[in-house]
Each structure stands twice: as C-alpha cells, then as structure tokens.
Structures
1.
Amino acid sequence: MGVLNVTPDSFSDGGLHASVDAAVAHGLSLFEAGADIVDVGGESTRPGAAAVDAAEERRRVVPVVRGLRARGARTLSVDSTKAEVAAAALDAGADMVNDVSGLRFDPAMGPLVAERGVPIVLMHLRGDFETMHREPRYRDVMGEVVEELRTGLARAASAGVRPEQTIVDPGLGFAKDAGHSLEVLRRLPELAALRRPVLVGPSRKSFIGRVLERPAGQRLAGTAAAVAACVLAGAHLVRVHDVREMADVVRMCDAIRGEAAP
Ligand code: PMM
C-alpha cells in the first residue's frame, strides 16, 4: 500500500503535492513502482496538526481519487475517520476505507462500509488525535492492542460489516511511544489470533527516528528493516511511502519465507 497524503502538513511528505495533477501523477507513480493499493488521505495525524473539517478533507481527497480512477489506477483506499469523506471518496471511485480510529470516531462509518460492501482497515488508536501522544500507558501493549482490535471487529460486525471485509492494523506510533511500537513489531505474530489479514504502517515513523536518531527524510534503511520485520512476522500488507524500495524488501522477504520462488 503506497501512501498518498494530500495534506499541507503531513509529517514526512506534507505539502509535496500542491496540485491535484501532481498528486494524481504521484499516485500513478506509486502503482508503477509496485503498489497494489494507493491510500489517499486528506487529514494529517501528526502531533499538533490542525484538525480538518469534512468539507475541506473532501475537497482535498475527492478530485485526487477521481483523477486516479480516470487514469486507470488499481485499488484505491481512502484514509479517513469521517463517513462523509469516505462516502464521497467511494462515490468518486475508491475501493476501500482505511479508518485509523477503528470505527470509533464516527458512528456513521460502520453502517456506510456495511452498506457499500467494501473492505475496511481497522487500526488501533487510543484516545483521539489530540490526546494520543500524551504519555500512552499499557500494562501489556500487544495484549491490549489485540483485545481492543477484537472490540473493533465486534463493532464492525454489529454495524453489519462482513467479517471477511475487515483488515486489522496495530497502529504503530498511534498512542504508542517508540518502546511500544518496537514491542508491537516484536510481537506481531500475536495478531494472528484475530484471524484477519494484518496491515502495518512503519514507514518513516518516529520510533525509527528514535532508534537511529535521524529525521523523517533519512529513515529509508530503518523503514526497510521494519518492513522486513513485518513481512517475516506474517503481515499481509505494509503501508509505505518509498514503494519501489519496499517492494524489493517485500519480494525478498517473501522469497525467504518460501512464498515466492525466484
Ligand atoms: N499511519 C499514518 C496514517 N494512516 N493508516 C494505517 N492503516 N496505518 C498506519 O500506520 C497509518 C495510517 C500516519 O503516517 P503518514 O502521515 O505518513 O500517512
């Protein structure tokens, strides 16, 4: 899954795609580089980022989804916690929803996804975008992530979402400090208990910066190491900015796992 942030302030690629045309061209280049899915997002979740209302988020996301769809994009995902934005993106041709709140922020999201019959990523996040970076505390981080994702799956089911349309994500860096994110990566196989495909988003994140003491623009090798750890631990999807490089990492890990004969 390639990341296409159409926000003025995302932490690692914010402001890069000033125009719709530039964003569409970048999205197409992610598919050419080997992405199976491109995830289009119009709200930054960076600490301290300004909240975006649904109308502004729609204005950012919809033309880019429409442009990509018109130019033959493969699978398109919309990264939003708002049902209104997701509905507009699905109308414009998106195929699936990536909800980092795991259906917690907008009660209309579950019913929308159920009605449209599209896949949904349920990510683990505690609190909201404002509070999630304030000293997250866990007794047993992976145990609690698994249980809270299980609750998210139940929330989806009670909204009428078919279980086979759900994907789970432990939410690296969301209400997790660097130690928590590293422990989640170390214990990733425990997510198999949920019996759903697993998506992980380690790309350029601050836990890599904490280990390597490098800014977001210099975390390519750190991201490669984290992506390898994810794939070798059984992740089915990885959400990354540097698609060409990470596609090689994934192919290599698949070969090591014996899943892709050379
Ligand atoms: N991370 C970000 C945004 N959306 N969605 C999922 N499912 N998983 C993630 O880890 C995730 C996400 C934040 O990173 P970005 O600002 O580079 O998009």
2.
Amino acid sequence: MSYSHLDLAAAFAGRFGNEPDGLWSAPGRVNVIGEHTDYNDGFVLPFAIQHSTTIAVAVRTNRIVRVASTFAPDDDPVTADLDALEEGSVEGWAAYPLGVLWALEQSGHRCPGMDLLVDSSVPVGAGLSSSAALECAVAIAANELSEAGVSRRELAAIGQLAENRMVGAPTGIMDQSASLLGEAGQAVFLDCRSGDSRLVPLDLKGAGLELMVIDTRVSHSHSTGGYAARRRSCERGAEMMGVAALRDLSVGDLAEGAGVLDEETFRRVRHVVTENARVEDAVQLLGAKGPVALGPLLVASHASMRDDFEISCPELDTAVEVSLDTGALGARMTGGGFGGSAIVLASVDDMPAIRAAVVRAFSVAGFRAPVIFSVLPSAGAGRVV
Ligand code: ADP
Ligand code: MG
C-alpha cells in the first residue's frame, strides 16, 4: 500500500496523536549493471526509481523513538531509548530505522527522540532495495531535524553501517548511494572504493526505449542466504590472489587466477572481475552511443551471474531468456540474486509482447505470476513536505 502525503500525515496523527513536523522520501533503485561488485571495492551503475519510501516524523522532547509502518497497521509502534541502542539490539524491520539513528550517533551526531511512520511503494524483497529506501528516508530526515549537516555521501555510509551492524546484513554502499545521489534522467556511476560518484545521462525515452522490472516474487534473504557465502568466496579469492580486493584484478589477471584458485573460487572471481569491466564499458558506451548499446553487456552480465557466480534461479533465467527471445535488447537479473527481479531493456514498441510472453512462460512453468512495471531514472531522497 502506498499513501498520498496527506493521508500519511493523517495516518501519523491517528497513530501518534499529533501532526508530523514533516515528510521525507527516498527512492528504491535498480542496478543497470555491476552486481556483487560493490563489496569488492568495484564499480556499479544503479539509478533511483520512481518507487519510494516516505516517512512522517515528529521530534520528541526526550530520547525515546517510536517507529511504526503502514505495512504492519495493527502492530503497536516499536519503542526504543536512543541511549540503550546497541549493535544487534533491535529485531525485525525496526532495526533499519533505529539502526540509522544509532549509526548517526555512532558517527558523532546526536539525534533527538522522534516518532516516525513509514510508508512505501517499493516492493519489499524484490531486489529494488526497499531497505535502503527506508534507511535513506530516515537518514535524510534525522540529518535535517538534528541539524547535523552530514553530506549525502556520508549519509549513505551511515545507512550501510545501520544495515551491516544493526540488521546484520553484510551489504555494500550501492543502494544507499543510488537512493541519496540519484537524479531524474541520470544513472549513478559509483566507485565503491573511493566513494567517488558521477551522474551519467540515461535518456531511455529519448532513445525510444523502456527499462522494465520483472519482480519474480521469489524472495531473497541477504542475512541468511547465499549472499554472505558469496562475499566470503570473494574475500578468499582476493587473499589467494594477493590483492586487497577483487577490484585490483583485471581481466588479464584471470589466466593466473585459473592456476592459483580452486575451480569454484575462480568462477566467483571471474564474475566480479568481468562484471567490473562491463560496468566501465557500459559507462563508456552510454556516452558514445546511448542506452541502445547496453544490450550485449546486460546479456553477458546475466550469463556470468548464472554460470560463474551461481546466484540466479529458474524464475530469473526464464524472465531473461523469454525476454531476449521476444526481441529485448538485453536482460539480466538485478540485485543480490536468489530471487528478486530481472530488468529488461527493449524498445517501447516491443515491450507489450515481451511482457505477455513472460507472463505466459511463468504460467506454463507453474511459477507465481510475476509483477511487471517500467522504471525511469528518478530524483534522489529529499524532503517532500
Ligand atoms: P530489498 O531491499 O531488496 O527490498 P531487504 O531484505 O534488503 O530487501 O529489505 C527488506 C526489509 O526492509 C523488510 O523485510 C523490512 O524489514 C524492511 N522494510 C522495507 N520497507 C519497509 C516498510 N515500508 N515498512 C517496514 N519495513 C520495511
Ligand atoms: Mg535490501
């Protein structure tokens, strides 16, 4: 469910008995290319989408925080004392918003107590980062309400700290960066080692193209799933190759890797190394030829994740294969994998047939009906009212 701003303010008043001080919003993201490269100090190319998480917030006069979500309308707010928060002390969804306040304080910025109601149009667990949308909405609101003056780049790191330490999910910096730094019509090219980023124009409409998300509705889990195992493989691969991170290897180093690494670790490493190269190629091609040139890179990225990194699943593979067979320029799974969403790049004219073919193929295979929608590079986090 997703409320209008007016309805969210009214729902806040119904929950907490007073008017909110303001509403802040932060978008989810899709990653055009660069998967599992972020925690390897590599490159990613996400953009902020039009689906976002909005929070209504009112500051309190003490150090108590109460958080509620329209996703759990019958639950009492989760209540916490800012002075009692410590790593791992919060269970469930409240670990995201409370974790951000904890992380801000850990970074030396004192936050006031506050009441907070969360609402979102970002599908949860679909690989579109509803988690970062929630973190970034809280981060940008708390930054403003506490007058901490923290930069967007630092707020992204604070969101990541919350997710890593309070939620316990060992995720990278990509999602928060896209949510905070994204702009309409632009993708965010991010170097996850230096933290430097730059906007790259991505004019899909102008090129007669559309980027479609196919949410397979197979839910993933970052904290318990294979994500952590892949991360460990990458760390092992880097150590065995004698580099600080897989970012430090180039495609030309892979021949040496084949001799040094065991077969499985080699394939994990090969995915990350070739994926980093594909991100750099994508940025270069976008500048030279526009989004129409991205197709083959998306196809290669998916094959690499399916065969080398082994994070795809039958639903994602079907979505990608059927889209390509029906005329898509490119398609790949996006996000952490093991479920979630695929993205499809195609001409606006071809999209209806692709969409129909995917729905039909899912039905024939006995999969849950997918949720399919288009996304456009959209504005990053900010205050809405
Ligand atoms: P993704 O980021 O791909 O959507 P994650 O598993 O990383 O998936 O994050 C999803 C989790 O974020 C949910 O299980 C929930 O704990 C939290 N979350 C996201 N949006 C909301 C919301 N609007 N209300 C409450 N919790 C939310
Ligand atoms: Mg997430």
3.
Amino acid sequence: MKVSATTESAASIQADAVVVGCYAEGKLQPAAETIDQTTRGAITRLIEAKEITGKTGEITKLLAPQGVAATQVVVVGLGDCAKLDRRAAFRAAAAPAKSLASKVRAHVAFYLNDNWDNDLVEAAVCGAIAGCQGQDLYRAEKKLSAFEQISWAATDASLLANGQTLGEAVSLTRRLVNEPANMIYPESFADAAAEMAKQTGLEIEIWDERKLKAERCGSLLAVAQGSTRPPRLVILRHHGGKKGDAPLAFVGKGVTFDSGGLSLKPSDSMKTMKCDMAGAGTVVGAMQAIAKLKLPVNVIGLVGLVENMINGDAFKLGDVLSARSGKTIEVLNTDAEGRLVLADVLDVAVEQGAAKIIDLATLTGACLVALGTDTAGLMTNDQAWCDELASAAQLCGEAAWQLPMFPEFSEQIASKVADIKNVGEGRWGGAITAAKFLEEFVQGKPWVHIDIAGPAFLDNPKPWLDAGGTGAFVRTLVEVAKGWRG
Ligand code: BES
Ligand code: MN
Ligand code: ZN
C-alpha cells in the first residue's frame, strides 16, 4: 500500500473517500469544518439531529456530497478530545478503514491529525492499514479489500513511514496467524522469517532437526516427534546498538498446530489451533519493524517451531524428557506442549547472551478464564522489568494485566520422578503454574512472560478489526525496544 502526505484540502482531494473527525459533543476537527462549510452545513445538521455525536468509533457517511471532490465523506467519532490516546487514534482510523474496505476502493484520504502528537499520527496510520486487512486469505471474493493508496493530511513524511512500518509489521503477524496449518508449518514459517530477514537486512540463523539434536533440545524435539513436519528454531538478530552490548531478547511460541497430542483436544477447541504460533508471529512482526525503523539497539528474536500431532512416534504421558538446560521433565499432559518448546528456546536465549527476556505465547486456556479474551497476562521474576513492559503496553493501548508469581505455585510442578513436571495439580491457577515452569529455564535473567492466548486471536470481529489474528503486542514490543537502554 502506498502511504503519502497531501496538502490538498479535504473538499478538493480526488479520492474514493475522505475521512474526517468529530470529537465528543459534536466538536469538529478543522477538515470536518471545511467539509461542513463546503456542503453548507451537512455535518452540522447531522449533529443537530443527533445522528453524529462524536462517540469513539461512530461512523457516519455522506454520500456524493455537493461541492466535495471525493465520492464520499466518512465522519468518525473521536471521543473526548482530552482523552485521545494511541488506542483511540488507532481505532479512529481502523474503524472507517474497515468499513470502507467492504468495497474495492483505490484511494482513501485521512484528515484526522489536527496538531496530534507524533505517536498519535503513527498509531492512526497503523490503524488505517490494520483496519482494511481481512482474514479471508483464500476467498475469491474478499470481504475486505485493502486500498491501493492512503493519503494523510499535511504531516511529516517520516511519521507516515513509521506508522506504515508498524502497520505492515502488524499485518505480517496477522497474516502468519491467519494462514492455515497446512500452509504455515515449521519449515514454511522459517522460510517466511528468512524472506523477511532478507528484505530487512536482519541476520538469521535456522536450526533444523539435526542441529536441534546436536544442541540437545530434547524438550522441544519431544513435542515435534509426533508430526511428519520437522521442527525449526529461528534466531533473528538486529545489530543496531553498540557492538558487544548484551541484547534484548524476544522469544515466541511457534506451535503451528496444536492438536493436543495424545492428550487430544476436543474438536471445538482444536478449530482455531492454527493460532498457536501467534507468539512466534508477534516476534517476527516486531523484528521486522525494529529493523525497518533502524532502532539503535541490539535485539534478538528467537522462535521455536513445532507441530503438536500424533503418530506412532508421538511423545507419551509419563515420558521423561531432558531439556537443553539439563533439567528433566515428566510429561503428564501432551497438551501442555508450549512450555516444553519454550523451555529450550529460553535456554538458547540465555546462552545467546540476552540481558533481559520477554516471551510471548498462546500458552493457557486458564489465562482466558482469568482475564477474558482481550487482556494478556503478564508474569515475571523481575518487577521493574515487568513495569517497563506494562507501561509500554499501556502507551500502545494494548491491554495487559499482571498475575502473581507466589513461590507456593512452584510446589505444584514438583515431580516424583523428574526435576519438574509439565502441569500443575489440577487446573486452578493454570496460567501461573505454566509461567512457573518457564521460570525454571531463564537462569534468573530478568524475564516477563506474556500469555496472549486471549488477545492474539478474535473469534468475532471488532468494529475496527476483522476476526482472526490480531497482531497484539507487536507495537508494544517495538515500544519496549525503543526504550531499551541495555
Ligand atoms: N495452545 C493451548 C492454549 C490455548 C487455549 C491457546 C485457547 C489459545 C486458546 C495450550 O497449548 C494448551 O493446550 N494448554 C492447556 C494446558 C493444560 C493441559 C495444562 C490448556 O490451557 O488447557
Ligand atoms: Mn496445547
Ligand atoms: Zn498450545
């Protein structure tokens, strides 16, 4: 998609649609004023009739308005002017974009930034790109069609470029998540990461099953064992900082399909398990943006890619695995596979010299029970590091909430035959016992685990985003990298 700045007025720009904004209580933005004057008060009349209220995300269309060059004007509600944050800016652009993408439209012009802060403009551009991307990758007749071109009212071209970079990173993650498991499996995911690395100049290293064996990744390999699709581990490196400065590490769960293994999932729970690589997809999307933005920091992204399936070689309940770190793990549920994959990837991240670690995983249904579908769970061994991440998420408008890591939870993963077991006692506190398991493999490094089982994937669409992969936490990771001081 082409994104460019325009100095043309909202009334005279040649476009399929012009998007203008209205704050709460019918307070119009300057471009909306221009349209109102050109149309001899069309918007004012709608405000008087209470058709337009300025409520966040409200969309009102003026079709073929007199005197306006564009085919239609979309008035979007922006809510309270003083409360406008990045979440609101993202949605204010995404909602009209999604609505307009219902038909093929080549050129949409956004006039939303009246003296907005840079961050708000970037968030809005990102939203405009996300809003018009649909999950119907394999429908001949698309429900949503991305525009060829977006124009943005007079603003700095570098802001638009940054916003576009964020938007394209979110799009990459969403596409990877939306691709079905017969298209995206460990090898093809690694190929996609390699293609991205080639485009952006990131360094990439791909471990195949031979290398994984040589590296003693017994925990990750056990999960992969039941599938005909061989596993991969991908390491992406961005060298933007000083040589020798210890990197920030992002680690992602990349289970390209989670059948549950022998602890087989019921059909209904399995339907959306192509999304179980969303953590890995988020890391790849964020790394793309970090490289394109040329952030002056050292960041590595590591993703563990496996398919959790059943054949005669599949790992079994009661099996004892040797993780790369040397710890032994008793498997009491093959559906608690994400932590087994991450155990080895976290160990590699530490060995690669990570100063601090963030992992992302669609790890537990229990996190959905605790926090609902829209909020990610944060769990940590280092409060200051978690606070840093939480404030980045807050700035980006991505919902996250911390869960406790009381030492008592660790007792639940004690095993009678091995160092630890891969499930807690019963289902209570399942998001936390999973995090306690992961903590065993970070060797005390400052670490935050983000359980994105809820927000990574939407069963139903939002007014501003199609259902399916959401790209949640791509922007937060980029924000953390921006603030990274080693
Ligand atoms: N991938 C699932 C978690 C999940 C559930 C992600 C719903 C997205 C939506 C994970 O591998 C899993 O199956 N977890 C089990 C753990 C249990 C066996 C301890 C779960 O949550 O039931
Ligand atoms: Mn599972
Ligand atoms: Zn899983």
4.
Amino acid sequence: MKVLLLENIHPKSEEFFKRNGYEVESLSGSLDENVLSKKIKDVHVLGIRSKTKITSKVLENAENLLAIGAFCIGTNQINIKKCNSKGIVIFNAPFSNTRSVVELAIGNIISLMRGTFDKSSKLHHGMWEKSASRSFEVRGKKLGIIGYGNIGSQLSVLAELLGMKVYFYDIDDKLPLGNAENCSSMEEVLELADVVTVHVDGRPENTNLISQREFDIMKDGAIFINLSRGSIVDINSLAENVKSGKLGGVSVDVYPSEPVSKKTEYSTVLQELPNTILTPHIAGSTEEAQQSIAEFVPAKIYDFIKRGSTVSSVNFPNLQLPLIINGHRLVHIHENVPGIMAKLNNILARHKINIEGQYLKTNQEIGYVITDIKNEYDKNVIGMLENIEHTVRLRLLF
Ligand code: NAD
C-alpha cells in the first residue's frame, strides 16, 4: 500500500508506516489541487495538515484512497461529503495538542495579569518600569471558560491548581471537573469572570460569538483570551475595547484571516495595543504535540486498514472490532438507507455462508457493516455484495 505524507508531518509517522510494510513518500510542502489530483491516483493513505485542500476534484481522482489522516484537529480543509460518497474514512488528532494549548493559556493568563509582556518590551527599549500597579496574582481570581470541551476542561483543572475559581458555559451538558461551576448561560460567565477565555469549535453559528454586546457585559479591566478560532471574535470590536481600556489585557493566537506562508508580512488591528500578546497560531504547536499526533493518527489508520476499526473517525460510524484468527472479514460501506443488512445477509444465506460475527453501525449518511465469515466461501458472493444497490465500497480484509 502506498502512503503519501504532505506538509512536513513528523518523521515518526513515516517510520510507523514503513515498519508495517507500507511504501511511503513524504513531502515537506502542500500540493495544489491540480498536482494532487494527478499524484493521488495510486495512493491508499493520504496524510495532510491544515493547508492541503482535499477538494471534490482531488477525490474524483482518488481511485485507491482508503483513508485520509488529518495530522491536526480541524477537518474543514477536507470535502467530507465527497469522502462519504466514496467510502473514504478520515481520522484526525482531536486531543494530541490539548495540553500544549492549555499550557499557553495558563502562561498568558499569568503574563497578562502581571503585565509582564509590556514590561519586558519596555525594558528591551531601555525603560525600567518597576511598579506593582495593575499587577495581580491569579490566585483567587475568577476564570470564565466558554466551551468546556477537551481544552476548556483541561484548562479548568490546571487553573484550579493555581487557585483560580472556575466558571464555565458549554452548549452541551458537561461534567464539571473539580470545583468548577457550570453556568446556565454565556452571559453569566462573562459577567462574573476576571479572565474570559474562549475554547469553542469553529461551527458557523459561532462566527462573531464574542462581539461588542459580549464585551459590554464583561467586567471593566477583564482579561480576554482567544486561542480557538479567528472567526469566533469580532476583531475590530476587540481592538476598540483594548484601546478604550474596557479590557485590561488580551491574548490572541488565531485571526479571521491568516497568511498562507511564513514569509508574508502580516498586519492586524491588534498590533501595537497595550498588554496584548499576539502569537501566530502556535498554541497547539509543540514538539510533544507533533510527536503525539504523528503516533495517534497512523495507529488509527492502521487499525482501520488491518481490521476495519473506525474508532475516533471523523466521518464514519465508530466501531471497535476484535481480531479474528481463522476466517475472513468483509467490510461493507453503504449509504444509510433501510434494508441493506437484510439484502446482505440474504446473499450470504443463499450461499450457505455462516456468519461468525457481525457488527453494524450507522451515522446520518453512512452504514458500516463488518461481517466475519468462515475460511471456505463461494467467491462469487463478493461481486454480489458489491452489486447491492447503495453500496459505496466493499473490502475483504483477510
Ligand atoms: P472540543 O470540540 O473538544 O470542544 C469545543 C467545545 O465547545 C464543545 O464542548 C462544544 O460543545 C462547545 N461549544 C461549541 N459552541 C459553543 C458555544 N457557542 N457556547 C458554548 N460552548 C460551545 O474542541 P477543543 O479540542 O477543546 O478545541 C477548542 C477550540 O480550540 C477549537 O476551535 C479548536 O479548533 C481550537 N484549537 C486551536 C489551537 C491553536 O493552535 N490555536 C490548537 C488546538 C485547538
């Protein structure tokens, strides 16, 4: 099987695939639609990060592609609908860099509360600003977390260890960790927090989730942190609230539009503002996170190709499967319409094939059936199963 890894994926991934007998090509950059459309034809596994766009045209040409590994968290760069219709499974690394983001958030909360970033910049320019004014401990302060998912909940734990009092709001029901308090609305959190930090996902409804109305609700002098997505905060309104002094400090790692290359000169309305830490989308970028992603994603892909497991897949129903010792495993991927199981089992019954084990899981679009059968079977059934109406893909694993 051929693996194509793009965008400088950590060498651990290449090592893993090679060790397991795959042929691997690794490229440091991304490929554009036309080049990738040609290159993809004989590829079975594609590894990308956030820059490579997996468009409908690329997927049209992906005749052999079984799996895409997104060596990052987001999967917006992939046409998921098209992957579903072609039976291509997508895996990502939803929590490999969680800890890295949380550590940066903690570091920046302390930095902003103490004003050390500005004081350091001033000293670089010869100004000795020795003062305790507007410099605070984080102990005993109220941290408001909007979005209590992987990052929000981890941050909650570490912030409590520093003596902060944690309040959070999530649109889903979440178990409060430690002594954190679950608030019934985002407004409630904004109103009481000394530090507000946003860790929601980038769904369209979250565009400009934090705008002037939300800044108005916050305490005067509140610290505001966005390490999640650029689209979530109205950046002009954020800048105005720093200028007016409504916000006492800001840390931003993500922007509404970000440059595609390191070389591009970047400008944002947040530059030159006081007590404002700007980082170039690096909250999750650490050596540890890169290594963890490079171990997590290939293991999931390998498990899928080897035994059909789809645990933690982005687009496929999640199924954890046992190994079988003697026998064969049929993987049938179909559009999720009624009656497919009956048709499949009918064909097996007519050919007197005994089912050793069968697993079915569906999501809104896809039905995923694994059928384990005995060693001896009539090979004609494969074609018949493939011909069942609404079949997307059939694979015989072993
Ligand atoms: P997650 O999916 O585990 O958590 C997101 C949480 O936000 C979920 O619990 C969801 O229910 C909640 N949510 C969504 N909309 C909400 C709303 N309007 N109000 C309240 N809660 C809402 O995601 P995660 O892994 O914790 O990541 C959080 C964010 O951080 C994502 O946007 C991700 O893209 C971003 N991120 C950025 C970096 C970086 O380098 N800057 C790195 C990793 C993750």
